[in-house]
Automatic annotation (TrEMBL):
Domain Inosine/uridine-preferring nucleoside hydrolase stretches: 5-295
Protein name: Ribosylpyrimidine nucleosidase
Gene Ontology molecular function: purine nucleosidase activity
Source species: Sulfobacillus benefaciens
CC per GO annotation: cytosol
Amino acid sequence: MASSVYLDMDPGHDDALALLVALALMPVRGLTTVAGNQTGDKTYLNARRILFLANQLHLPVAPGYNRPLFRNLVTAAHVHGQSGLDGYEFPEISPPDRSMDAMQFLEIAFAKEQEPVVWIATGPLTNVAAFLIGHPHLHQKISQIAFMGGSLSGGNITPYAEFNTYVDPDAAAYVVGCGIPITMVGLDVTHKALLAQKDLERFRCLKPPIGEMLYRLFTFFAGHEPNAGDRGMPIHDVLAIAAIANPGVFTWEKISLHIERCDEKRRGATEIKRPGSGYPEIKVAVDIDVSGFFEWFWQSLVYYQ
Ligand code: RIB
Ligand code: CA
């Protein structure tokens, strides 16, 4: 039986799409939300909005940290809008029960799991780091952590750093060095797998309201994602789902990685270090079969037809 999957996200347009793909393909057992693309209250609401439209509001979703471990929050409102999911008018949904926060939910959920779980993170790694720091006895319950973040080829929020590792470099450095097998999917591949603007129409073949929602969300996103252009738009977080569901579309390398935390100019930069130099070694996606990825991507969305 496939391992249980837990998601930690900051929806966010590409997180929302990644969530729908994961729900279609994987045994997702729970979702935690973190501040990043927008504030924590907005990413939590957005996660519930997507679950509601996907008829999955029964899935446990718990709010996590509202700011990085040690730094002030930097959001991406310029990319995702004031709501974090601008471009589509979501219906009102029932208020959350807020009975548990992310740490409480994960402690209970992971302790109950009979087999180690797969954890996929698509926002700043604040929740993941905080949970690992506070629950060393539960590390054994996690078989691997895959995260969207970092870059070996320049940044998107600064010339040096990708947004997720920039927002919380301390959390990213802790997670990369925590000893659990880590998989990194960074801009090196997400800037290659660009969703063509002409293909947005394909979302409209999906059942309402999912199809129209995705079409409108990504029409907005195309006009706001800094690296969107004539060749299309990156859908970053979906590739973190592919890293687990379809790892064969990537070329992987084991890389010793340093995450810059002290030099403010290079804050959050993910830098290659010489093997055996004492830096943690993780699995990094260094290339992608773009057509193979999109064949998998569109096939996964048949679930919503
Ligand atoms: O740099 C891209 C990452 O930052 C994605 O996860 C996007 O959702 C934003 O969080
Ligand atoms: Ca994200």
